[in-house]
Amino acid sequence: xxxxxxxxxMVREVMATGEVTDSRVADAMRRVPRHLFVPPGAxxxxxxxxxxxxxxxxxISQPLMVALMTQLAGVSxxxxxxxxxxxxxxxxxxxxxxxxxxxxxxRHADLAGSASRLLASLGYGRVRVVVGDGSLGWPENSPFDAxxxxxxxxxxxxxxxxxxxxxxxxxxxxxxxDVQALLCVRRDASGAQHIDEHGxxxxxxxxxxxxxxxxxxxxxxxPR
Length: 224
Description:
- This protein has 224 residues and is an alpha/beta fold.
- Helices cover 27% and strands 27% of the residues.
- It is built from six helices and ten strands, in the order H-H-E-E-H-E-H-E-H-E-E-H-E-E-E-E.
- An eight-stranded mixed sheet has the order 5-4-3-6-7-8-9-10. It has a two-stranded antiparallel ribbon with strand order 1-2.
- Strand 7 and strand 8 form a beta hairpin.
- Helix 1 (3-16) packs antiparallel against helix 2 (23-31).
């Protein structure tokens, strides 16, 4: 199967679950060469609907989870988006394909560097990768229309809520180290908050001042 055919099969499999209904998200994922965002030795598995390790005990999330979080974020052309946890840069690329301007915060400098170089080489000039504590957000470029947290926090980090525009949406896995709930925090034009839950999932822990302390056990993002 060619890479294009494998990518199309992946998107169709994601859409067949019925959890993702936004055709714009599907089209964005059709345009991103996911096989370039996984280690060379795993490229034959890049389009399987499951997470893939990328080193540093980190992972590129399952395509279904990427699509679901992107849909919940409600991104549109021109949206200002904060991504917490760059990883390989795949989620950033999907957001950029939707026309968003993305600030992506990664705590590992080596992952941030490799992701930044790959995104630049693919023409994703709308993405800026920075090194820092993502649990504290990136206040200098706030407020953000959408915030995606690709690691699990014990609670929604207050700093991130404070950097969310009105209206705006924050999508994050929240819970203990073994299982989390995927939450969407919606902030309306008045600043009032509404929280919806979208099933259970398992992500690597969010390490930082408003997250968890460093630990040796980290698991890839996937639905439970």
